[in-house]
Every structure is written in structure tokens, then in C-alpha cells.
Amino acid sequence: MRNKGMEYEQAQQQSIAFYTHAANLGHWVAQYQLAFMYDQGFGVTADNNKAMYWYEKSAEQGHWGTQNSLSGLYGQLPKEAPDYNNAYLWSAITIMNDNSAPTADRDNYAKQLTASELIAADVAVVRLYKKIEENRTNRLP
Question: What is the DSSP string of 57-90?
Fold first, then answer.
């Protein structure tokens, strides 16, 4: 009789290797899946830095769910002070990609920024949005 636990562990390690390889090649869904695994500690040691890295890679290619998640993650970083600049940035990008997305989070993050920080954040939003649009046309399916 085979050890089901060992089979599961091997399959999990194979999926991590697969997602890592595909993510490094630029596949946006694999980047999201790998980020989620690091975020939740599924098959890997939970690592907030690696999770954020892969979430951003996926979000920069237009993954709407990741963009929305990043807004919340930056707004409530557990070990550090919240990063309201990036929280605002990703919530604004989410709204630009989905007009029905709620604006309350973006507006709350904006209230945490000074006027000059808000202007700089709006400039960053426009630049990032253009980059995302370019990436969408060039990304792997």
C-alpha cells in the first residue's frame, strides 16, 4: 500500500516547481498562484516578501484580482506601518480596470496621504496603468 501522505507531498513539491518555473517565465496566473502559496504557506514556508513580489508581478500584467488584493494587503501590512501610497496606487488601478469597483478604499487611503503625496501617487497611477496596458498585450496567455 502506498503512502498517500508522501504522494501528496511529492505532488505539492512538483506543483511548486511548476509554478515557480512558469512564474519566472512571466506567466501571470502562475505568478498569482505562487504568490498565494507564499501568502498562505501552502506547500512552502509563508513569506510575505516573496508573496508581495509575485503578487506585484502578476498585477503588473493586469491580473485584476491581484490588483485588488494588493490594495488591501498594502493598506493593512501586519508587521510594518501600512503603505498607504501603494494601497492607494493599487486601489486606483483596480478602479481604472473595473468601473464598478468600490471607491471607498481608495478614498480612505487618499485621506492618509499629504497633498504632495497624493499628487505623486496619481502620477504613479497613470504611469503604472500605461505599463499594465502594454504588458497585457505582450503577456503569456
Answer: HHHHTT-HHHHHHHHHHHHT-SSS---HHHHHHH
